[in-house]
Amino acid sequence: MTAARSATAPPPAPVPAAAPFARAEALDAALGDPWQPDNPYGFAAGAARDAAETYPAAAEARLRAEGFHLCHLPESLGGTLRSFEDTHVLVRVCARRDVNVMPATMFSISAVMTVLAAGTAEQHRRVAGWLRDGRTVAFGLSEEQAGSDVLANSCRLDEDGGLTGVKWLVGRGASADAAVVVARTAQRGPAAFTALLLGPEELADDRVRRLPARRTTGMRGIDFADLEFDGLAVPPGAVVGETGSGLAGALRAQQIVRLMSTAGCLATADTALRTALRFTREHRTGGERVADTPYGSRELALAAAELIATDVTVLAAARLVHVAPESFGLCSSVVKHVATRLTAACATRSRALTGARGVLREGRGAVLDKAVRDNAMVAVIDTSVLGNLRAIAMHLPAYSAVCGGEPGGAAQEDGAAADRERRLTTVFAFGDADALPGVEPAALDLGVRPKDDILLGFAGHADAIAAELGHRGEARAAALVREVHRTLGGAVREAASAQRDRARSLKASPELLDLADRACLLYAAATAALTWWFHRDGAGLYGDRAPGGAGWLTAVLGLLTTLVDGREPRSAGPDAAPAGRLITELDAAHRLFTALPVRLSDGTAHRAGPDDVEDDER
Predict the structure, then answer these.
(1) Which of 16, 172, 398, 526 could serve as a FRET partner for 533 with CA atoms 20 to 30 Å apart?
(2) Distances (CA, A) of 266 to 350, 378, 579
(3) Are 278 and 604 spatial neighbours (Cβ–Cβ below 8 Å)?
(4) What percent of the chain is modeled with pLDDT above 70?
């Protein structure tokens, strides 16, 4: 066993410097303790704005003064983007207070990334200048009658340069200074669309009408408004890149947007779980703290496992987009689906723990209600669940040879193994921004031919990971890794078989979509296993004091395999217990719920009030 381990063991991931997310820590400290009721950047202020459906003007101004609005713009264009991992954590510490700060300061990301993916150098400089000046660039792709079928969009750019049509639910549509609009320029096919960069002059034209903002269930106070164009004269220089490349450029950009939107998923889940932890520690039922009851401890542990599973998947994805942008397409769709599904469960589970107080429109009930509703908004902002699963389903058959154990599958990939190992070492060196290459939006690819490093890496390492866990006495974790490996192989084989069978195709059956959903959970499990592998000889993750501790891994794999099997999440309760302990300790230490330490400004002072009950017989 020792020889087998040494033959396949990669070098350990580099150990990041102390406080790898110092920028996030400094900003959180500047914004103050979010639990203080008089903090304008705290939970109470966010809940009050939500109730009044008002825009977070003061928070936006403060964050812009800190340069936060430039965190997704590359440094080469005057921004502060070091890595998407660093930016993701930075966004989370702000959005946990009120997720509305994301649309208030970051809704330009879709437009900017579309221009960076498909536009000219001059267009890059133009949008970067707008961002540096504090302007907002909206993005218009969706149309109400077409829904997720963008090929059915009808907003068009005529041969004479006139733009006509309506873009639906445009984020910041009523207040944006500029916009990127994807319009039809031909009759059919993906190449029938062109992206247009409209500046302040075009948006001020009388032939542009900003319709009243639509009221939404979450992110209240943010203007989601339709943009109506009635023959707007579009200058030739407004075409982003080449005519007919607009949809491809926009879809490549959405890979990054999907990744960054998961900061909102994790931020709202963090707030919900942190609120539930405080409630369950302070309240008693039958003389026992809710957190210590069998039901309370299990539900907290499951919520913690749901959050950790999301976090580890997102962290790897935020680094993979730098290391292998050409094969990031699958990962970007997976991470969005995993994050929306698991954090929604975490937030809802957390609110349920507070009982009747979870439905109150005041105090912690208001904070929890806002977190749950805002979380649901993030799920649909940049993609549809159905469209995302369809995209994932199209990728899966390509992995049947390697992950599915088909004869000769592994040999086909042997030549690239060393390069892939180097990339994986960089991907899992969490917190080390210096190891990452710069981001290249233009290198993002929409095809299924480039293979995903995480799936291939797990297929190559699964046996060694399980053996090492067994050697360390982590028998349950080892068994779960083997189960993930076996189940993943079966899922991709079934996807390949279903794609060849017309009766099981996407047009005839939901089977492929169900397989895509399961594959997403298995991808997250594979990411978690690889994370442990590359950190097995380093400091424990998620606050685990034991070097190479595998408690969090058992929790994540136990939860994910339970969901893959279609069983009730509560049956994963025993496996999830370590996650509950780790998250509780992170909260007590005022740390963000993430793999590496990120200090928060949360204080311990709490004034007694109607939420505090010594003995609550719920």
Answers:
(1) 398
(2) 13, 10, 16
(3) no
(4) 93
The three-state DSSP-derived secondary structure of 540-598 is CCCCCCCCCCCHHHHHHHHHHHHHHCCCCHHHHHHHHHHHHHHHHHHHHCCECCCCCCC
Residue with tokens 């990411």: 527
Q: Both tokens of residue 351?
A: 């609110």
Report how far residue 267's alpha carbon sits from residue 46's, in angstroms, rounded to the nearest whole number: 13
Contact 602/608 with Cβ under 8 angstroms? Answer: no
Q: What is the DSSP letter of 404?
A: T
- 597: tokens are 């330490």
β-strands 137-140, 178-184 pairing: parallel
Three-state DSSP class for residue 401: coil
pLDDT digits (tens, 9 = 90+) for 49-89: 999 999 999 999 999 999 999 999 999 999 999 999 999 99
Antiparallel, parallel or unpaired: β 156-157 and 162-171:
antiparallel
Q: What angle do CA 95, 99, 100 make, to 5 degrees?
A: 125
Question: 40: pLDDT confidence band, cut at 50, 70 and 90?
Answer: very high
Closest CA to 558 of 259, 226, 382, 305: 305
| Backbone dihedral angles phi then psi of residue 208, each to the nearest 5 degrees | -115, 125
Residue 101 in this model has a pLDDT that exceeds 60: yes
C-alpha closest to that of 307 among 337, 334, 269: 269
Q: Which two tokens stand for residue 338?
A: 């995993």
Q: Could you report the per-residue pLDDT of 452-492, keeping only the tens digit for each?
A: 999 999 999 999 999 999 999 999 999 999 999 999 999 99
Mean pLDDT of 92-112: 97
Residues 6+ apart with CB under 8 A from 320: 328, 331, 427, 453, 454
**Tokens representing residue 401 in the block:** 């040879």
| CA 563/CA 571 separation, integer angstroms | 10
539 token code pair = 């400091």
Q: Cα(531)–Cα(316) distance, rounded to whole angstroms? A: 8
- Please report the DSSP string for 14-39 in residue order: PPPPSSTTHHHHHHHHHH--TTSTT-
Report which of 481, 484, 505, 504 is spatially closest to residue 564, judged by C-alpha positions: 484
Residues shown for the chain: 618
What pTM, to 2 d.p., does this model score?
A: 0.94
> Residue 447 corresponds to which tokens in the numbers above?
């095809």
Q: What is the rounded distance in angstroms from the CA atom of residue 100 to the CA atom of residue 96?
A: 10
pLDDT above 90: residue 8: no
84-95 and 22-31 helices cross at what angle (nearest 10)? 20
Are 153 and 161 within 8 A, CB to CB? Answer: no
